[in-house]
Amino acid sequence: MPEFLTLLPPQESLDKLLRNLPVPKLATEKIETASALGRIIAADLGAPHALPEFPRSTVDGFAVKAADTYGASDSLPAYLNLIGECPMGATPDLEIISTTTAIIHTGGMLPKGADAVVMLEYTQTVDNEIEILRAVADGENVIRIGEDVAQGALIKPKGSLIRPAEVGGLMALGFVDVEVLKHPKIGIISSGDEVVPPEKRPHPGQVRDINSYTLATLVEKYGGEAIVYGIVSDSMDAMKKAISRALDECEMVLITAGSSASSRDMTAAAIEALGEPGVLVHGVNTRPGKPTILGVCDGKAVIGLPGNPVSALVNGYVFVAPLIRCLLGQDAAELRPSVSAKLTVNIPSQAGREDWIPIKLKQDSDSFLAEPIFGKSNLIFTLVAADGLLKIAPDATGLSAGEIVEVIFL
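Now predict its structure.
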């Protein structure tokens, strides 16, 4: 019976894998900015012009020379002559000189001579004069030219994630399309004679394929393109053929099942046979997911994940997500959304092993309670019911009820 190699901590295992991978070749494509949410910018982007390109009002009110309002108050207003209105979407054809003012609307262009805007709420109209009831400073209620972005400024470096704000910012500068990194192709292979497609009714002793679908969505969540190769039988020839094809067509390959230390273990042997340096890690000191294989075949990562659905998905977050980030030219480390919560029960843990526990969050007045969901690693609904995961560090022997813990959102 094959034995696990020396169990390595997850981070040490990941670091070892990354050291054996070449710098990724990043292919790019140009797409419409409106469809670029979640993509990675391929090249530094500079502002082609200032934003805004003209001074704008941030409020409804009156364009003024700030000096004309100094000392104005409710009891001693300043009086300015109204000379017109600034049109929206056009350059005003009037000029503000001392003791004059003009109506202006939010977003409107300041007329020549104006350097501030008095909010409508602090004025009164008397015939053709405007009472100013509060003084304003030079530049108050105004966005100056280039205050948002200066012409030529770096607005986003390459490798940046495009979020909703970036879509808006790019559109504001006229970037209707943008060059982004292509989705790296990630091959997914599920193995086992007992595994059948989800649309098929399993016979006794059979299970539906879960991992191909959970891993495919995980891959897509992190910016990859999932290529699902289906279910491979427990045959060395079939396994090698499937992995070889996936290596030819993809930048990384994931195999689920076939990684446990049993007589039917073929994943490690297949990886060893298909490229150098082969298997780097066989067994990670974590729960769930100890029988995880990390390998490299001629410059491409090949990961053997356990067949148990919870183990496969949790270790997908631990190993697959960082590798996809690297394939997209990003740092492997990720700032994951999390929340602090009070643990509701004691959780035992084995010292020297990193444990990941599914957590259900509950609201408790103005804080959260972290309620562990205990279950075996082949029970997918322990994750379905969870809001996040709690990591127990290897140097801990457990956590006590009442402790404040960090729950990482799934």
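The two ends are 36 Å apart (CA to CA).
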